[in-house]
Amino acid sequence: MTVVVRRFRTADEPAIERLNGRLAAAGLPHRVGHEDSRRGEERRLDTEPIIQRLYVAAAGEEIRGGIWLREQLFWSEGRPVRVGWTVYPVAESLIDGKAAGVPASLLFSLLRQEPHLMALGMGGHAGSFAKILAAARWAGSSLPFFFSLLHPSRVLRRLAYARTTRLRRMLADGLAASGLAWTANKLLIGASAVMRGRPARQCTYSVVDRFDAWADHLWERCRDSYGFIAARDSRALNSLYPESFRCLTRLRVQSSGRDLGWICARSINALGTRLERHFGNLRVGILTDGLAHPVHVTEVMEAGFRYLVDDDVDLIVTYQSHPAWCAAASDIGLMRGPSNCAFYRSPAVEDLLTRAAAKDRYCHLTRSDGDGPEPV
Amino acid sequence: MRWRPHDASATKHGDGAPPAAARSVAVAQGERATMSVDPRLQAVFEAVFGREVSQLSEQDSPATIESWDSLNHVYLILALEAEFGVQFDAEEIANLISVGAIQRRLERASGSSPARAAS
Fold first, then answer.
1. Is the Cβ–Cβ distance between A259 and A217 less than 8 Å?
2. Is B94 on the interface with A (CB under 8 A)?
3. Residue A358 counted as domain residue
4. pLDDT tens-place string over residues A4-61
5. A46: Cβ–Cβ under 8 A, 6 or more apart, which residues?
6. Which among B13, B16, B70 is the nearest to A93, CB-wise?
7. Cβ-count burial of A10 within 10 angstroms (0-12 exposed, 13-18 middle, 19+ buried)?
8. With an 8 Å Cβ cutoff, are A88 and B8 in contact?
9. Residue from A97, A91, A126 nearest B66 by CA
10. Which end of chain A is more exposed for a tag (fewer CB within 10 A), N or C?
11. Can you list the alpha helix ranges (DSSP code H) found in A224-346?
């Protein structure tokens, strides 16, 4: 039966359920979703800042796979650029070799829809979809990861990574019980502070429920200092982080009454969430997203860090791509760690990044890009 | 993360190169098609799946070549496009899942045989 890649139709829902049933019967957790059939009109980027469309690989009456295209506007070289993220690809090739061509067909179909195509996360470069993107000759890199241990003893006792082997568990427990972990962490932070010299100027921050005109002014001031950045005007931000999304704190950062930037922070009790696998019952602080002119990034990031410290988290993590944000993370005492967040982009996006980098303008991505903020 | 698990060591990450020749390939035993497979097509398959696919038949498919998974399918498609100078439509990529289907598609592109497709 010939496979055809096309937009999802409401009538596909039974076939999608049958595919999901076959995947579940094979013990796989992956599922193809479906678009909200209650919305009749076609979504457009000029009326909505972010739109998602589901594409399916149909073979007669059956569905063999699906992939979401999440489209939004980026800003690059002084103009808006429509880009797409490939999100949550699922194919029957997981359980049936006859569908081996489905993932590539879905991918290349999306590329035809949207040449500026990217993918983020995917469990790192070893993830199967990341390998397919690499095979398709997309450029790949990792989104730099930074962390800071605020309560090292607690972290050593509860962080899954520190307890994967018996030796690690013994070492972690020994360091935690002896106080060596606390001492070493303090020494590391102290040495890092001495090396970076002048501390970041402390700015004031206020918690806001939504992004308003001040965020638009900031966006217009900052956007051209980045080579490639998702539209972060108030419309896009209020769509990505709606007021109803209460588990995220939006911080407006100011100095002498002037807006320097904003940063989104989250405090998550990992227990009972999908983060539990990695973080046990730790309280995890995440600097999820932010915007500032590159010269003010350190102050803005420091404000977010301070907020999370006051919120009594055990550790703070953040993913940042832009050199100024990476430098700011180091400046405020975060250490760089191994990243499992892969970033792949199509040749058209790579071309934009290369052209911008030649003008000293760089890509600003955070973990909130791709499929949005952590679904916790 | 969502495709069939694959041996990472067999893939040169990021450079788009086909995987190393030495791969575990299980070619079905038994009846082989009598129609011969074009030598250039045979060479592409050997480059992607290894020397074990030295006796390709038109019936060979992911069902008979164990390492013909979603990842190697991408390598195969790109290698075919480079070798034969053709560009497959996104949709037909999902349907090129047997040696026979690929050979027929290349024959259509060339007017007769895959050997002429590149010209």
1. yes
2. yes
3. no
4. 999 999 999 999 999 999 999 999 999 999 988 666 667 788 788 889 999 999 999 9
5. none
6. B70
7. exposed
8. no
9. A97
10. N
11. 234-240, 276-279, 297-310, 323-331
- Count the neighbouring beta carbons within 10 Å of the beta carbon of residue B33: 13
Determine if the pTM surpasses 0.80: yes
Q: Are A180 and A266 members of one domain?
A: yes
Quick one: tokens of A72?
Answer: 């939004």
AA identity, residue B91: E
Overall number of domains in chain A: 2
Other residues' Cβ atoms within 10 Å of the Cβ of residue B67: 20
Contacts with A103 from chain B: Cβ below 8 Å:
3, 70, 73-74
Tokens of A253: 């950062």
In a shared domain, residues A74 and A159: no
Specify the CATH class of B8-116 in words: mainly alpha
Instruction: Name the maximum alpha-carbon separation found in chain B.
Output: 40
Tell me, what's the ipTM? 0.79
For B71, the closest of A99, A135, A137 (CB atoms) is A135
Taking the C-alpha atoms of residue B38 and residue B26, their distance in angstroms, rounded to an integer, is 20
Let me know: does A250 contact A208? Beta carbons within 8 Å.
yes
Geometric angle at alpha carbon B17, from B10 and A362, rounded to 5°: 110
In a domain, A363, yes or no: no
Place of tokens 């796989």: A28
Q: Report if residue A139 sits inside a domain.
A: no
Burial class (CB in 10 A: 0-12, 13-18, 19+), B104: middle
Task: For tokens 């450029």, name the residue.
Answer: A139
Same domain, A107 and A165: no
Give the closest residue to A120 by CA, choosing from A329, A368, A363. Answer: A368
